[in-house]
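User: Can you predict the 3D structure of Putative transcriptional regulator? Sequence below.
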Amino acid sequence: MTLLTSAPAPGGDADHDGDDAGDALTLGRRVREQRALRGMTLEQLAAAVDRAPSQLSAIENGKREPRLPLLRALAAALGVTVDELLLDEAPSERAALEIAVERAQRGTVFGSLGIQPIRVSKATSDDTLKAILGLHQEVERLHRERAATPEEARRANTELRAEMRVAGNYYPDLERAAQQLLDSVGYTGGPVSQRHTAGVAEKLGFSLHYVSDMPHSTRSVIDRRNGRIYLSSNLPSRDARAPILRALASLVCGHEEPRNYADFLRQRVEANYLAGAVLLPEAAAVDLLVESKKQRQISMEDLRDAFGVSYEMAAHRFTNLATERLGLQVHFMKAHESGTLIKAYENDGVRFPSDALGNFEGAMVCRNWTARTVFGQSDRFNPWYQYTDMSAGGTYWCTSRVEKAKEGLYSVSVGVRFDDVKWFRGRETPHRSRSFCPDDRCCRQASSELTTKWAAAAWPEAATPTSLLAALPTGTFPGVDANEVYAFLEQNERRA
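Assistant: Sure. Here are the predicted structure tokens for Putative transcriptional regulator:
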């Protein structure tokens, strides 16, 4: 866990309401301190400045800041100057502690906890205030640590992709874990059945429960206390295998609470990998691929059909095995119909679009790449094959398919360098394109004729994605509504 090199000032909530709130608290404590030194009651001071005691109480508690005329009246009644009341330092150590706790309780981090603030009074001991302040500062530190900025998240993602590239996207420990799970349920070959999947869950001590009220922000929920895995009753039966295995991966891989966004990303990659390694077992998948390579007929469709999985899982699993077991360097893309790159992996030198940090996800794919041209094809039954001549890096061949999800259409593509296309079905395709991206003249810049005609007349309003300006989701598991999940578990535990 990354430790901060410096801590905020006592009670210095990074997201408190601003210096005005701090000034009001300090001013209020100075007024109270001066009143107490003179032995005046709140009522006596209120009478001296012709105000209600409740108004002065709000000022002393830092909930209201007096206007200048009232401030002058208070200074006169207390026998001090206005400047003395406006000093920005607390009048005593005790007052400083009270101010720090009050400021913390008014901050948004404390407010997000849903805890009722305590009333700080003379009877509240220093130790109690220090304990509250210490706990708040720790919660605030964890909040900052987990609230990854977009830059931090992209950096973590880029580092993980680099690690995957070096490893050839192949992880022997996860392959062994998957084989052990299959051995435990007596798997001998062919597609991994629902019975096998349920057997894996049972061996790990979990029962499966399909419900209609799954928390909207989740794909599955594990109840470790009662040994249950909850899945949506609307999930297609064949596709239920992957969510079950991804859920169980947290147990098999020994995942603990993510310490940061990098941990979260790594755990997600491991869960997806393990699910693929179980549903497309290494030995059987490699046998099929080696034979296909001998016949120069490697095909994602054959891998998909042989193991009864989605095209995307077959394509992704192929990247796990291609380099380590077939000696092929490859790339993988998942792109939305808008052109946005959703997932990407490469170790064959292809130059994906990226940001300044080298992050692929979220970048726009060239319109001339297979991942984009496939959307223009009317034949969605057969795969789309295409060669693309790159301005830098030579020629690449890709096979691509369009699939549908709740977010719309997306393409899944697998490709290799021209020298390796001899091993793949579809190499005879006549389809060919050229890409000069990132040069804007490739596919982003309109012709000079259209630019001359419309540049001064067009004023489009961008359909800004809601996530563009939003902070990344926070929490132990980013994007998951913990309150909803806990309420769901509580309700289902009572039903049992």
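Strands lie at 207-211, 220-223, 228-232, 331-336, 341-346, 384-390, 395-405, 408-417, 432-435. The chain is about 45% helix and 10% strand.
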